[in-house]
């Protein structure tokens, strides 16, 4: 067991140190979860505009002038092109504008928060158009890729992410710390097996019981399993390299950095730019988006997120292998020293050295 670094201090000093460090840790944890949420606003949000006429041009100008920097506009010649872009996760929605009406195409499955924001923008755009045309322009909203009817606001999907991240950490602790599989290959195989089984369990609960994850069953299960394996293998790798402190390092990165920066309840483009980008490079953010693509978008837009999870998995596996190699090297070194100490030659040399010392 590692020694307590505070054990050499008197009790009053231990209490003083804990009184400073513990509240600081709690405050930083709260800050990590609340600060990104408090800075939510549209930042270069990919949105389409359908048409090449004057009305479409005015709509694009209106979006850029009323909210500078909020939207990254993509122009599409037809309704079919815009729908295809939404289904392939290239844009969150699209505005089809004419002198009589505004049709807003959205995908609440990509982000209910973004869908609500863009629906409000469509209503405001219709109001501006009505002030210059007679009769008043009509606003129509069509959800191209809706969320599950059992989870219309996506709240269940978002709520499941924190237990998933914690579950990945727990799997690592169970396999690497409590059981301590050896050699390294056996530990890696154990992590893969329990991640797949846990992914299947989550899949049954979320899809069959709650109904929050419709769509491709195999793809959904594979996404859950890969996310759990990426988290658990990294935490187990840190434990192999650093011991129990490595579990703390891995858990902090996943739970208190990756989880709040993932933007699951909003979208990466609604968070501060650096935070949103960092969140998508960590397993919670990449896993959430991979799961959305598998459950709602037939796998479209999944490749980059699968690559991120794959990289974290490889890093975790490499750390496990290196950690076990170091332990084996130390064990072999101690074993060699013990054998040398027990050998007759070593005893003879020791006796000769001792005799020489006495004579001199």
Could you give a quick summary of the protein structure above?
With about 350 residues, the chain is α/β, with parallel strands linked by helices.
How are the strands of the biggest sheet laid out side by side? 2-1-3-4-5
Strand proportion:
5-15%
> Gyration radius, to the nearest Å?
28 Å
- Poorly predicted runs of 5 or more residues: none
Head-to-tail CA distance between termini: 45 Å
Helix content: 55-70%
Largest sheet: 5 strands, mixed
Structural class: alpha/beta
Strand/helix succession: HEHEHEEHEHHHHHHHHH
Explain the overall architecture.
By secondary structure, this protein is an alpha/beta fold. The chain folds into two domains: 99 residues, abc type-2 transporter like fold, CATH 3.40.1710.10; 178 residues, no CATH class. Helix content is 66%, strand content 8%. The chain contains 13 helices and five strands. It has a five-stranded mixed sheet, sandwiched between helices. Helix 4 links the parallel strand 4 and strand 5. Helix 8 runs parallel beside helix 12. The longest helix is centred in the last third of the chain and has 40 residues. The radius of gyration is 28 Å and the shape is elongated. The relative contact order is 0.10. This is ABC transporter permease. Keywords: Membrane, Transmembrane, Transmembrane helix.
């Amino acid at each position: 067991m590692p020694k307590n670094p505070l054990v050499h201090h008197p009790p009053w000093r231990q209490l003083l140190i804990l009184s400073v460090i513990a509240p600081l840790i709690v405050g930083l944890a709260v800050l990590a979860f609340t600060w990104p949420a408090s800075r939510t606003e549209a930042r270069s949000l990919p949105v389409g505009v359908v048409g090449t006429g004057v009305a479409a041009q005015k709509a694009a100008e209106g979006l850029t002038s009323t909210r500078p920097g909020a939207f990254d506009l993509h122009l599409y010649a037809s309704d079919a092109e815009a729908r295809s872009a939404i289904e392939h996760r290239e844009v969150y929605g699209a505005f089809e504008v004419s002198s009589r009406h505004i049709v807003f195409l959205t995908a609440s499955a990509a982000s209910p928060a973004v869908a609500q924001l863009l629906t409000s923008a469509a209503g405001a755009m219709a109001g501006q158009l009505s002030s210059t045309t007679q009769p008043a322009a009509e606003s129509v909203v069509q959800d191209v890729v809706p969320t599950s009817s059992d989870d219309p606001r996506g709240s269940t999907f978002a709520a499941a992410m924190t237990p998933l991240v914690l579950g990945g950490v727990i799997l690592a602790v169970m396999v690497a710390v409590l059981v301590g599989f050896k050699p390294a290959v056996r530990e890696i195989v154990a992590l893969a097996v329990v991640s797949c089984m846990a992914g299947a369990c989550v899949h049954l609960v979320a899809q069959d019981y709650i109904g929050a994850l419709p769509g491709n069953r195999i793809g959904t299960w594979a996404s859950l399993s890969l996310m759990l394996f990426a988290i658990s293998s990294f935490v187990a790798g840190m434990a192999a390299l650093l011991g129990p402190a490595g579990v703390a390092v891995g858990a902090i990165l996943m739970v208190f950095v990756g989880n709040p920066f993932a933007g699951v309840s909003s979208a990466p483009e609604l968070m501060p730019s650096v935070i949103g980008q960092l969140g998508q490079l960590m397993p919670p953010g990449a896993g959430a988006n991979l799961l959305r693509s598998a459950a709602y978008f037939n796998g479209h837009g999944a490749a980059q997120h699968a690559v991120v999870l794959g990289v974290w998995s490889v890093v975790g596996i490499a750390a496990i292998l290196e950690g076990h190699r170091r332990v084996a090297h130390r064990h072999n070194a101690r074993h060699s020293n013990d054998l040398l100490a027990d050998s007759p030659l070593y005893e003879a040399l020791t006796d000769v050295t001792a005799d020489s010392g006495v004579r001199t």
